[in-house]
Amino acid sequence: MEENKYTAANYKSDQSVRWCPGCGDHAILNSLHKAMATVGVAPHMTAVISGIGCSSRLPYYMNTYGFHTIHGRAAAIATGFKVANPEMTVWQISGDGDGLAIGGNHFIHAVRRNIDLNIMLLNNKIYGLTKGQYSPTSDRGFVSKSSPYGTTEDPFIPAELVFGARGNFFARSIDVELATTQEVMVAAAQHKGTSVVEILQNCVIFNHGIHNAITDKEYRADRTIHLRHGEKMLFGKDGNKGIVQDGFLLKAVEIGVDGYTIDDVLVHDAHCESNFLHQQLAMMDGKELPLAVGVIRDVEALTYNEEIDKQVAEVRAKKGFSSLRDMILAGETWEVK
Amino acid sequence: MLENTNIKVLDKVVVRFSGDSGDGMQLAGNIFTNVSAGVGNQVSTFPDYPAEIRAPQGSLSGVSGFQVSVGTGVYTPGDQADVLIAMNPAALKQNVKFLKAGGVIIVDIDSFKESDLKKALFETDEPFKELGITAQVVEVPITSMTKAALAETGLDNKSVLKCRNIFALGLVCWLFDRPLESALQHLKAKFAKKPAIYDANALVIQAGYDYGHNIHASVSTYRIETEAARPGKYTDINGNTATAWGLIMAAEKAGRPLFLGSYPITPATDILHELAKRKDLGVKACQMEDEIAGVCSAIGAAFAGNLAVTSTSGPGLALKSEGIGLAVMAELPLVIIDVQRGGPSTGLPTKTEQTDLFQALYGRNGESPLAVMAPASPTDCFTMAFEACRVAVEHMTPVILLTDAFIGNGSSAWRIPDADEYPEIHPRYVPEELKATWRAYLRDEETKVRYWAIPGTEGCAHRLGGLEKDYNTGAISTDPVNHEKMVYTRKEKIDRIANNIPALEVQCDADADTLIVGWGGTYGHLYTAAQELNKAGKKVAFAHFRYINPLPANTAEVFAKYRRVIVAELNTGQFADFLQAKFPEVKISRINKVQGQPFLVKEIIDGVTKIMED
Questions:
Q1: Do A13 and B289 touch (CB under 8 A)?
Q2: Which residue of A3, A117, A166, B338 has the smallest Cβ count within 10 Å?
Q3: Is B72 found in the same domain as B212?
Q4: Do B360 and B461 reside in the same domain of the chain?
Q5: Is the ipTM beyond the 0.90 threshold?
Q6: Same structural domain for residues B303 and B375?
């Protein structure tokens, strides 16, 4: 890949962006344009495929091949696209409703197959386009138009689904942290296989401030941790807090307090094949333990599309039919003269 | 070999194999079919099997049948059988109704013990009397003869019993003077990886053949006329395989890779099986997580530039509806194969019907026209699968191909086409001169076809979607007038396909005043019935539709020549309604059957005769 051949502008379409002013999607779109320029895949070799929902309008704002499809089906459509045209870099844009409710089945199967897609899961914990119903990521008791007395169900935690489906790449960011979003998008694109990036996104109209407990500037540094492969898991305004192992669990400590030193603080290994620690890191929720952003898991594994291509090549090398007629004539036939 | 026996000479015969679903009746029937096709007969088969994989042994619900007609002028598997093979009392009870007057029944008398009769719910120990059978019954100790033939092999009892079907096959081969060498070749191919089983079956088929020879005094044998077929290489093919191969041929002629997104469903799964094998021709067949993912992966593949297909049956087509609507809106080439079965809901999964026509035509939200086609026979599945692809690619539209369980599972001898027998397919790529100014929904004004820009092409990046688009710019548009224009454009695009498909042909007595009309998989029965009506002096013509939406351009012209049109179909009148709405001036009578079974020729003859008398 040649560097700097493309700029963010090369990936922008001429359509005016129609999201509400203040919507987190604007920042995510900007991060995506920049991330694509950094990755350097040509716009005509890039496809952006979405489902339905506010965030799924995104392909119209890209100067790439794009497909705004139907509710929940982006992962299935993107899978067919990638298998059919594996040279293309394929991005999927889905919201929490699109990806985890109506499209939950396709989502987990895409992750299980490990097809080479970059799935951007924009999580605002609400249905925005239908004007404010709870979503499968809304917390228990959440009050919305369709749950006026509060929901009576527990939410999905996207990371948990990804690990449950044996995912090999999971990263997280927050819409307002453009640099982090760009960083994890680039990592997702560079990862071979299904990459899931959860981006906490603010819906300014129907769920304003839903992520505030974590994302508010006042305490963001203390309630989030930016994980980087090979680096100590440190966080906090002064960078003096760390994650240590406590039996089978994790614990947040202050260095110098209770006898904890920098040597006790864990070093992040995103490439570790076992996902045991990755799961624990991804499940940290910003309460007792800081919410993790950055690339949490990034492990190489066989991809669905490459294995199909490999199998086709192997079978063809062995049997070598040049045409349908060849193949049929190699079977049982008889001749009428 | 047949010199000393009583020989009946016939132009065609019908044989029905029946037994437990685990008895291997389908295999015995298939080999008999292939052997007959190999000696130059026309063949038509009808596998009639239960939905249960293994119902209780010997029970009525577990009976599996395989009917085949071989000879000349064979267009159907036959209404009734000349010879019925019943491996047990349950098979006899379920199948005796399919025997022709004067036919012969061959039973394995070893499995007519008291306990066997009980399992088949016989009330007396005289099954033939209880069923009122007057036909000749040949009682053959198939089980004990099979055991005797294999006594020396040391094969375990279970494996020995599994060879009973091949004993019956040997006997039938003798009865119809079929060459055993050919049957042995088929067995060898079937058991290529189990030489011990092949050896056992080779012994058993010879034993069955010899047994027939030894009893020749008591039963007639048959000599079947053969007719010189068109020269060429032939193979035996069933409709589902023909469908799969037709798709591959189209991919070759269009120069686009073939993609299948599918999910297993009876009776369509064999298309997935065949295409999964065809990685040796570069086909990518993906078994997806559900029916919706099947169609959606195909839509993704179509957008990506492949010849994309999804295969299913009625319930699956229902699940795919929203996806197909997206393909209508995005104007992408997509072939949807519906191997129709009995419905509604799960219905009769292994039985045949033509009840999905309305679903294919209208089963989507909004105004969402698409092309609908239906092959006439197992071998026609090849041609029509090719045609569905040709129309999809050349007209940038989804095409639903309605086959059915009868032609999908049924087989015929098929002349393997030469490479140049099918036309080139011309994808409507963005013309060079338009590339600079091209927009996603720019179309050829003559055909109304949108151009196809394959992702990866520089300068053609574009966005498609399910939202309505502006006719000129391709941007999202909610303009009311533009929407109406787009609705009519999409309709017009489908209507104009009529200029790119063959005209409707009239067969039989074209000068008659009554026209029998059918569509899809009922062709063989309707054609045979029309011929027989002509032979009996009844003046009827016959027109069969393989292109349903749009109809062939000359349809109105053909109908205008007849005083009466009789539409015969395996539903309550869907095609008749469709035609009546389009041609209100035509007097349409109907013959309908919704029993999960194909027509009998006799039913059509009786129905037409009755309507003509009215």
A1: no
A2: A3
A3: yes
A4: no
A5: yes
A6: yes
Q: Tens digit of pLDDT for each residue in B402-419?
A: 999 999 999 988 999 988
Record: contact B286-A79, CB cut-off 8 A: yes
Where are the extended beta strands (E) located within chain A?
46-50, 65-68, 89-95, 118-123, 126-127, 133-134, 169-174, 195-200, 224-227, 234-235, 241-246, 249-254, 291-298, 334-336
Residues B80, B202 share a domain: yes
**A267 Cβ under 8 Å from any chain B Cβ:** no
Q: How far apart are CA B193 and CA B153, in angstroms?
A: 18
CB A218 within 8 A of CB A251: no
Contact list, B322 vs chain A (CB under 8 Å): 70
Cis check for the bond before B375: say yes or no (omega within 30 of 0): no
Q: Between chains, do A325 and B416 touch, taking CB under 8 Å as contact? A: yes
B515 in any annotated domain: yes
The predicted pLDDT at position B10 comes to: 83
Query: Which of A 67-126 lie inside 8 A of B, CB atoms?
Result: 67-70, 73, 76-85, 87-88, 105-106, 109
H-run or E-run covering B544: strand B540-545
What is the distance between the alpha carbons of residues B565 and B570, in angstroms, rounded to a whole number?
A: 17
Question: Does B248 fall in a domain?
Answer: yes
Pick among A62, A77, A308 to test the B interface (most B CBs inside 10 A): A77
What is the count of structural domains for chain A? 1
Average pLDDT over residues B284-298: 98
Q: With contacts defined as CB-CB under 8 Å, which chain A residues touch B465? A: 59-60, 66-69
CATH code at position A197? 3.40.50.970
pLDDT band at B3 (very low <50, low <70, confident <90, very high): very low
Nearest-CA distance A71 → chain B (Å): 9
The verdict on B74 and B216 lying in the same domain is: yes
Chain A positions touching B230 (Cβ under 8 A) are 336
CA angle A96, A97, A103 (to 5 degrees): 100
The reply to whether B197 and B273 lie within a common domain is no
Best mutation target, B281, B324, B336, B379, to test chain A (most A CBs within 10 A): B281
Residue A118 is part of which domain span? Answer: 8-210
Is B569 within 8 Å of chain A by CB?
A: no
> How confident is the model over B554-564, as a mean pLDDT?
97
Residue A133 lies in a domain: yes
Cα–Cα nearest to A95, from A152, A134, A131, A56:
A56
pLDDT at B4: 46
Q: Do B261 and A80 touch (CB under 8 A)?
A: yes
B428 vs A: CB within 8 A: no
Q: Encode chain A (337 residues) as per-residue pLDDT tens digits.
A: 445 689 999 999 999 999 999 999 999 999 999 999 999 999 999 999 999 999 999 999 999 999 999 999 999 999 999 999 999 999 999 999 999 999 999 999 999 999 999 999 999 999 999 999 999 999 999 999 999 999 999 999 999 999 999 999 999 999 999 999 999 999 999 999 999 999 999 999 999 999 999 999 999 999 999 999 999 999 999 999 999 999 999 999 999 999 999 999 999 999 999 999 999 999 999 999 999 999 999 999 999 999 999 999 999 999 879 999 999 999 888 887 7
pLDDT digits (tens, 9 = 90+) for B415-461: 999 889 999 999 999 999 988 888 999 999 999 999 999 999 999 99
CB < 8 Å from A in window 36-55 of B? 37-38, 40
Mean residue pLDDT across chain B: 94
**Residue B423 counted as domain residue:** no
Whether the CB of A312 is below 8 Å from some CB of chain B: the reply is yes
CATH classification of the domain holding B154: 3.40.920.10
Domain termination site, one of B415, B444, B461: B415
In a mutagenesis test of the B interface, which of A67, A321, A326 is the best target, namely the one with the most B β-carbons within 10 Å? A67
Identify whether the C-beta of residue B91 lies closer than 8 Å to the C-beta of residue B117.
Answer: no
As given in the structure block, the two tokens for residue B558 are: 């053909």
By the 8 A CB rule, do B347 and B307 touch? no
Nearest one of B2, B22, B41, B34 to B184, comparing CA atoms? B34
pTM of the full predicted structure? 0.94
Last residue of a domain, one of B383, B415, B447: B415
Name the residue facing B456 among A44, A59, A109 (closest C-beta): A44
Residue range of the domain that includes B606: 506-613
Inside any domain, residue A156: yes
Asked whether residue B536 is domain-assigned, the answer is yes
Helix (H) or strand (E) segment spanning residue B527: helix B523-535
Q: Are B494 and B360 part of one and the same domain?
A: no
Nearest residue of chain B to residue A43 (CA atoms): B461
- Tell whether B541 and B562 lie within a shared domain: yes
Q: Is A181 part of any domain?
A: yes
Give the domain CATH number at B361.
3.40.50.970
